[in-house]
Amino acid sequence: MKKAEATRLNMLEKSFELIYAKGYQNASIDDILATTQVTKGAFYYHFKNKDEMGLAIINELMKPTLAKSFIEPLQNTKNPLDAIYNLMYHLLIENDFLKVEYGCPAANFTQEMTPWNEDFSKALNEITQEWLKAITAVLEEGKKTGYIRKDVNTKQTSLFVLSGYWGIRNFGKLANSKEVYLPYLEEFKMYLNTLK
Amino acid sequence: MKKAEATRLNMLEKSFELIYAKGYQNASIDDILATTQVTKGAFYYHFKNKDEMGLAIINELMKPTLAKSFIEPLQNTKNPLDAIYNLMYHLLIENDFLKVEYGCPAANFTQEMTPWNEDFSKALNEITQEWLKAITAVLEEGKKTGYIRKDVNTKQTSLFVLSGYWGIRNFGKLANSKEVYLPYLEEFKMYLNTLK
DNA sequence: CTTAAAACATACTAATTAGTATGTTATTTA
DNA sequence: TAAATAACATACTAATTAGTATGTTTTAAG
């Protein structure tokens, strides 16, 4: 029961990479099997169907990644505005798990799966709300510690921040270059400063 | 040579609607034929292949729509900040050509096609730059007329604005409700005011 | 060491896909 | 009005798709 878990995880990881690069519909099961070096029997032993595997990717891979790379860096920080800016900078510029030419995995999934599969919407909405809450929380904390104006609407702000992130990810995908990230980050910094 | 043009346009329009709703890969040619009530022979008489039709959608449908609905409203206006806000409000709330559950057509196309068709990237980049330039121009004009601070980086700002738009469109798609648009617009208005 | 179930592997199927080959009908143009 | 070509229509194909049926091998428990 240990090796089986490993194969499952390996399949999820390779599937994620393929889907992230090519899109969900375009990453066929045969593609996945070819890169994972396992057979169809193994795939359908671990997953009822392709959509169930897609949901597993969200819940078992993306969710933990969100917690570690998108939320944890915000917690236990002094200046929330610095923390948020640094997180964005890291995600856009330094993080080498995310590729500029592939955009944001969550946004990609949303774009492609939302019209089709209600379960995907729910799962994606969950992780999105998680991130939103984390940003809202750190902003709210900043109001207490005096880093942020008392009249700032933190929910509104975090929605605005996340929207910008998704948008610039799509922009990077189109431009196929991280260069667009830099002016975005500059303006983002200016925006954050207006919350002081 | 008049009726033929009409069939072609009709096919493009119906194809656009299908692709907008279901995604490019997922809108099969047979789907398109079924809704347009024409046959495969007609389709391949007018278009060399599916991708050429997709490009025609961008160049012959989306480009004119961009000019009329996304750019023209910005021109010949007094207050550029009002003009930009009103444009966003109209696009998100009032425009009934764009559907909240389907997101932004250009962003959808970018997401889906960019990884594997260079021509799509080029075409989409063109219309994107067009919109960016229009926003930059109206901001620049605002600097002259005194509505906007002289030290505002207009290119940076328009990139930030467009990113936000794309992002909130994706958000609306996920939430499947225009309600998320309202807090976004509120924060967007606040952001625009910082440019004064 | 046996045996039962877990964990895979192989070979298929039925449906769908983009695209083609070969027609027929409508529309110009001479 | 006749012939040429534009504008379609029909019937196919080969490839790819998700998924299944039926195996074989590995692993773990008694």
* Assembly form of the protein: homodimer
How far apart the termini of chain A lie comes to 53 Å
Tally of structural domains of chain A: 2
Low-confidence stretches of chain A: none
Mean pLDDT of chain A: 96
The H-level CATH homologous superfamily of the largest domain in chain A, spelled out, is Tetracycline Repressor, domain 2
Instruction: Tell me the helix content of chain A.
Output: over 70%
H and E order of chain A:
HHHHHHHHH
Put simply, the count of helices of chain A is 9
List the topology elements.
Two copies of one chain form a homodimer.
Chain A (H helix, E strand, L loop, with lengths): L2 H20 L6 H8 L3 H7 L3 H22 L8 H15 L10 H9 L4 H27 L9 H22 L5 H13 L3
Chain A binds a DNA duplex (30 and 30 nucleotides) through helix 1 and helix 3.
Question: How do you describe this structure in short?
Answer:
Chains A, B: It comes from Sphingobacterium olei. The structure is a homodimer of 196-residue chains. Chain A has 196 residues and is mostly helical.
Explain this structure.
Chains A, B: Residues 28-47 bind DNA. Chains A, B: Keywords: DNA-binding, Transcription, Transcription regulation. Chains A, B: InterPro entries: DNA-bd_HTH_TetR-type_CS, Homeodomain-like_sf, HTH_TetR, Tet_transcr_reg_TetR-rel_C_sf, TetR_C. Chains A, B: Residues 5-65 form the HTH tetR-type domain. The structure is a homodimer of 196-residue chains. In chain A, 73% of the residues lie in helices and 0% in strands. In chain A, helix 5 runs antiparallel to helix 9 (181-193) and helix 7 (118-144) crosses helix 8. With 196 residues, the first copy, chain A, is an all-alpha fold. Chain A has two domains: 1-47, Arc Repressor Mutant, subunit A (Orthogonal Bundle); 59-193, Tetracycline Repressor, domain 2, CATH 1.10.357. Chain A is elongated, with a radius of gyration of 18 Å. The first copy, chain A, is built from nine helices and no strands. At the A-B interface, helix 6, helix 7, helix 8 and helix 9 of A face helix 6, helix 7, helix 8 and helix 9 of B. Chain A binds a DNA duplex (30 and 30 nucleotides) through helix 1 and helix 3.
